[in-house]
Design a protein that fits this description.
The protein is mainly α and 74 residues long. The chain folds into two domains: 40 residues; 32 residues. The longest helix is centred in the C-terminal third of the chain and has 30 residues. The structure holds zinc ion.
């Protein structure tokens, strides 16, 4: 999972990891998360689906090969 780049909504300072604290550059207290949240490039549902696919695909492949091995062995 790549960390989301968060920039100060006022001066553009990279505030990744500092979202909850004031901007060290301009003192702006606006949270980049509040500003960027709804307009994030990837919808949360897509991110969730990708996470599910990434975790489930290897499991399904493993179960499939295990099932095949079991069927061939019997
Ligand atoms: Zn700033």
């Amino acid at each position: 999972m790549t960390p989301l780049r968060l920039y100060c909504p006022k001066c553009g300072y990279d505030r990744s990891g500092l979202a909850e604290s004031p901007c060290p550059e301009c003192g702006c207290r606006l949270s980049p998360v509040d500003v960027m949240g709804p307009t994030s490039s990837v919808p949360p549902t897509i991110q969730f689906a990708c996470a599910i696919a990434i975790f489930l695909l290897p499991a399904l492949l493993f179960l499939g090969s295990a099932l095949l091995a079991f069927l061939e062995g019997s």
